[in-house]
Specification:
mainly beta, two-stranded antiparallel ribbon, 0% helix
């Protein structure tokens, strides 16, 4: 196998149980799932998807066990036909199992909704995608609308780590 370690039995992997030294309760010390690759992010509206093109996407992921580290890199998001409703980013390589995870995001050419201090990416179990959420001081969070994109040279760059069921 050209120098690679190949584990051909399901449920087997590299066993790290001899190195357990944390104060938590370990449920598994076997590394049996590692994957990395690219994925295609899709920008759309929740009520009406619309059609958008992205001139450059360099979206990548690394999955270790049930943890996915996701990079979102979408440049020059151009409106072909406008969508409506809340902004969605779909096409995730693995569906989130919990909607509580949030990650960092940098936006270019987006209007921030009223009273929003900063924006985060949030994993969504209901859409199996990402939401763009504005955090507000002393108020509940607010989701960005697809119409908050103000230019055809809008960019989204972010990173989020989330848990998946698979």
């Amino acid at each position: 196998h050209s120098g690679n370690i190949v584990i051909e039995t399901s449920g087997k992997g590299i066993d790290f149980s001899a190195n357990t030294s944390g104060s938590g309760t370990a449920t598994s010390n076997i590394l049996d799932d590692y994957e990395e690759g690219s994925w295609t992010a899709t920008f759309s509206g929740a009520s009406t998807a619309g059609t958008y093109t992205v001139s450059t996407t360099a979206c990548r992921y690394t999955k270790i066990g049930d943890t996915v580290n996701l990079i979102v890199d979408m440049k020059n998001i151009t409106t072909v036909s406008a969508g409506s409703g809340l902004l969605r980013i779909s096409g995730l390589p693995f569906n989130p199992s919990n909607g509580n995870e949030a990650g960092s995001v940098i936006l270019e050419f987006f209007d921030f909704p009223t009273s929003v201090s900063y924006a985060v990416l949030r994993a969504s179990t209901s859409t199996n995608g990402l939401l763009l959420v504005g955090m507000r001081n002393g108020q509940s969070d607010i989701q960005f609308s697809v119409t908050d994109k103000t230019s055809d040279i809008a960019d989204i760059f972010g990173q989020i780590t989330y848990k998946t069921a698979s």
